[in-house]
User: Fold these one by one.
Assistant:
Number 1:
Amino acid sequence: MSAVIEQRTERPAKAVSAVVVAGLRRERWYRQPRLRRLGALLAAGLLLAVMTGEQGNGKDLLYSLRGTLASGRLWVCLGLGVVAWVLAETGAPLRAAAVRLLAPVTAPIARGGELAVRRRGVRVTAALVGLALAVFVPLALSRATNQVLVDWVGIYILLALGLNVVIGWAGLLDLGFVAFFAIGGYSAAFWTGHLPVKPPFELNPFLVIPVAMATCLIAGVLLGGPTLRLRGDYLAIVTLGFHEIIYLVAKNSDGLTNGSLGVFGIPHFSVGLGPVQYRWKLDPLDYWWLLLGLIVLAVLVLRRLEHSKVGRTWAAIREDEVAAAAHGVDTVKYKLMAFAIGASTSGAAGVVYASKVGFINPENFPLLYSVLVLAYVIFGGMGSIPGVLLGAGLLAWLPHALKDVVDQKDRFMYMGALLVVMMIYRPQGLLPARRRRRGEPTPARSSVQTGDAQ
Amino acid sequence: MSPHEFWDYLVPGVALGALYAVIAIGYTLVYGVLQLINFAHSEVFMLGGFGSLIVLTSLTPAHPSAPISVLLVLVGLVVSALCGGATAYGLEKVAYRPLRRRGAPKLVFLISAIGASFFLYNLAGKLFGRDPLPMPHLYDNNVVLTVFGARVTITQLLLLVCALLMMVGLDLLVNRTRLGAGIRALAQDPETASLMGVDTDRVISRTFVIGGLLGGVAGFLFGLNTQVSFTMGFNPGITAFAAAVLGGVGNIRGAMLGGLLLGLVESFNVPLFGEEWRYVAAFVVLVGVLMFRPAGILGVKIGRAA
């Protein structure tokens, strides 16, 4: 019972009743929700001050913290906390009034936007405009920027699209996705004859793509076959282990993968069909367009897949596996299919990456990246292709955007903070899938825990 | 491998296993009450190590005498436990509770925890430098006893004793106290538990703190055994997570067993296959066991949907 009451007291909209309830329960004065919120915001200010402090060092462990405590920045940050608190406490009536005043203007816009998004023509136009921007804008950007665009944004969008099949549609938690990326990269090195082990015949990188996809498909089935019977969390640790194993194999078998030295000189893509002769070179723009082509292809294929029988079966498995099985769905088969499709997308990305950079070593595929791709997918909106494109694009870009703003070593700290804040305030992602947006009831564990927030 | 070598690898294996067991308990406790993997638990461990490192660096004299050494170790234990507990408490407040109130889907918790983990370890790297640091010299790490010719050092003994005490204490806490009853009730059926008067929020928060106390102490002990660094949580965290799953996640005794097993496997893996394969063994064993027992060694059959 007390849990229920406590939840009520935390809701800002019911401030008046909260006071009454607090009075009834004889709350201590410092336990008032208002003061608690002040405390939370002050703590956030303190954290902000600590975060933005100087780089510390191992010789004087408290150097950075001491600097923060003595600086004026601390007081600025705490002041910001207080200002935020005042705005939050007094702003509610103001905000409500503003919303009421603006409602005649904003409501039709919101409704119109919602209707427009549902219209096919509007969606296609938006996609085409986006594509046109993606094709032409990089022409105006610097070479270094384009480099980032290819090596990070493009590649990671492709990876996120693949992972979206596994996690967004089939609902399988895969923490070892980048292992397949590595397999793709090493396939490229193998089939172009740059590994210590020589292939029977050498292939053009273009032809390696299907071969690598097939390899990843098989690897996905081999890994998934025995493990997909496991439940969600178990699958997570097993895939994580798979990644660790692939990583260590790549690092330690000198005779197979050249170990931690890596592989040099993987050739660029080239086309040699009669009159059409073209070689991709180090120029990132060419690779950007190639990647864009692959992404568009992947989006078209995956869209068809999403609305096919297979896609609907995945949705059924994701929402309730037991019910799906009871209706005669061969769940293992379909889960395996999702796993393998995701893996082969990742493999294709690996080939492009290896060819573009020309050099790979195990450090290109750390476990961290598997986790990052997962974060991109969920940040953008699981199961929604536009969301995944946007989320992966933004987040993969973020570390480079932050490069000049904050200390380079701190970038992942800010990214972590962004992820937490985003999950608290917009857990469904930037552009959620329509199925999820319609307010589908999520399988909550208990009505008491979720409270009346739903 | 000669019998002599066997004992030489057994002792560190058991010590490491005990450490993994203590960390794994943190994962499994949280899983029990929330059905969630607390991905940021490795950072609780790391901050426990740093907390004790900071305090001990400023306290330790150049050549501590025996009573001072004992005192310092006690201080280290207490400080690391407090740091771990405080971190876990804050983590629950910031990265879990707001999501719980909204009834967010499970994956959202996972990402929030991953974000918190990124944040914490990079923050620690920023504040305390990014080089690994040894714990200050608290005592001469002599050999205190020999088991079948294998030498046991003070640190190893300390590690074993602390881990054992914590495990026994936790087992008593979960099985004998009111809070323990709340934890078990919540693990079985949260809705009924709250109808029976269990304050879910409070029990969840305290479960995090208990896991954090254990994780923090483990961080200190790990630091004594090796070094403290901002990435020190990563490998032990993943291995302990694997250990929790191996034993049957949600099952406390299973986590202890799994931790011990993986510590031994890791230790014996080094002479058998080489140092570079150290971290693979845990996962190979995990996959092997899960194939035959999909719910882990001591795990019950999958009754409730995960």
Number 2:
Amino acid sequence: LVVIHINIVRPFAGLSDVSISEDVPVEGDISVPVAASVTEDGFSTLDEPVKETVLRDLRAVGSKFVHVLYPRRSSALLRDWDLWGPLLLCVTLALLLQGGEADSEDRGGPQFAEVFVIIWFGSIIITLNSKLLGGTISFFQSLCVLGYCILPLTVAMAVCRLVLLGGSSTVSFAVRLVVVSASFGWSTFASTAFLADSQPPNRKALVVYPVFLFYFVIGWMILTFAPSQ
Amino acid sequence: MSSVSENRSSEPWSGFEENLIQGGGSAVIDMENMDDTSGSSFEDVGEMHQRMNEDEEVNGEQDEEQEDPNQDGEFLGMKAFKGQLGRQVADEVWQAGKRQASKAFNLYANIDILRPYFDVEPIQVRSRLIESLIPVRMVNFPQKVAGELYGPLMLVFTLVAILLHGMKTSGTIIREGTLMGTAIGTCFGYWLGVSSFIYFLSYLVNAQITMLQMLSLLGYGLFGPCLVLLVTYNIHFHFLFYALWLLIGGLSTLRMVAVLLSRTVGQTPRLLLCGVLSLLHMSFLLYLHFNYHQIIEGLLDSLEGPHLSPIQRVARDVPELTLNVTGRSLSLLLGNQ
């Protein structure tokens, strides 16, 4: 029995010999998350229905949407960051921007990939910039905030498509201009409200400028969108 | 058996407990595999390797468990050629993953190295932007160049956005790739390429300037072009463009030339450096304006016109193009065809 006990205390002793070179301390790294997750949660989510899991995540995403639309100075968006919402918004925006006039003739309209690249690449640049300027926010928190704050612009895009159904005239352009400008201001304001606290107070302008540029490009892309005839 | 599972439940590995108890058959094997290598029999990592020689292990383990643990290496050596494939694959996957992770981590950790170059205040940036349009006539003493990258980087991104705007309004066609990629490539290519080229030249002629200073100087030098393009992409007057090109573009070029002059010694080196820089900078602005300008693009588009026959294009394009002289001559040209 003594022999059995010793061997079980080191259940991964053989692991380093089998597949992983010996200089890597694998044992410690693996053991931590398993023990922690069990003790922290107290209940297991493994045996719950998939529907509940999905609904819980969707509810979390939805509550964050509300935070963006009504930007109080709350830390919920920062504390429990996720990238599902940004992905959802990004895909929706890219899909709505599909099928433009320019797109059909291969004229360099906003293609799906382009929208994707602009959103993610832009967020990453802004995040790196804020880190370089001495911000205390973490990388993914910033990505999460910037992604969620596209929501007003996505809504504006949906409105624009509806307006464009009625035909493109000067009036419709004026309506679209107003809607896009309002949502652009909203996006910038909301993201600034969330991000500004983590920045040194004298440098807020430097952090806000790329955010402004980012949402401006997206908003301008939405404004110039024209559906194919 | 029962004593074994009791021992297990007292360990921090309680997460694995269920699996171990459920697989009754495996537990028997586990009891037999008392040497060090047996720990892998439930692990994913060594699974492939394990599958290959599990049978041999079960048979051979009885003898080996009495052996000294020091012979572990020998035992492995014996097994090595059997499980070599599995081990190699697992090892390689692990190494590749480790390399990727450490590369990404290093990149992120290295941000701290760049931080000093972004140490600016908004007022400093504003004053540097304004200074970039004011040439200083001080040639005898080296002028100060701030080694800072925030302003240049933001100016390059602004230029990218303006360029995108210009491309969109002019309806530029790019066969391979996207507008975004082209705009980013053009702006960053110019900034980095010309900076390194001028730095190389200044190294040849022994000018006192570092790469960082060059990047900062040329980056702030892009403020003039940004202004000019922002105006002229929206207001289409050729005269206005040439006036702005000479005035604002010229001022920002002169500023850079003055700085380079003050940091170079000798006539020929000065002529070489400043000539190359001003030529590149002024022609870059011209290129950006005319390459993505509405009227020129319209001309090229109409002349190429691959999709439609000439007659249809005349009927459709004449009303738009008769707005100016160029357009009129074009419509005449097309009318003659």
